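Collaborator request, handled under Task 6.
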Amino acid sequence: MENNLILVVDNEPELLELVEFHLMENKLRVIIADSGAAALKLLDETAFDLVILDIMMDEVDGFAVLERIREIGLEMPVILLSARHDVDSKIYGLGIGADDYVTKPFSPSELVARVLAHLRRAHKAVPIEQAISYSYGSLTLHPAAQIVYKGKQAILLSATETQLLLALMKRPNQPIAKKQLFEAGWGHAHYDENSINVYMNLLRKKIEDNPREPRYIQTVWGVGYVLAGDPG
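Structure tokens returned to the collaborator:
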């Protein structure tokens, strides 16, 4: 982990200095850039293990840099920074290849924790179920990106929502007990039925045309939930 090289791109000098300090405190090597153009030049010259990239910059913004990173085939994790809190910006950024999205103001310790987590994942083999996509009807789930497409509409999911929908999409038309879904979503067996019900309602609000009359995520009374309905 100590040999990892991080590129930090932002047009705010104070923020660059703050992020650089905290990353170096965690024994990471850091190169900074104060513009999108400078970042593109560095990316052509140097191999980075992770990029922290501000969106709102003059001339060449963060989205343009990210698109270029993916166009030339670079696969390092990219964490976007932005003062934008709207969901559309998050969906767009994740949809074009970002691995994470952090809104300003943020805790430096939280950003460092996210950086370290992404570096750990980048050095591990990706489980096959996370690397592929799953489809049912008009839904296509990309677990690694935490995005489900409903037709051409990209819908951003939380990590828990992703794991719950993945569990359902791996077993379409098969009722799954709430306890099994809880273990899939939270990764432990301390079952909380209310949490399952809340998250299923959140998922329905995101993917159903009418959450009160769900087409996809249906309740199986006394058991749990099933991904069913018209798959066409």
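The cover message to the collaborator said: "The longest helix spans residues 108-122. The first strand starts at residue 5 and ends at 9. Please let us know whether this matches your experimental observations."
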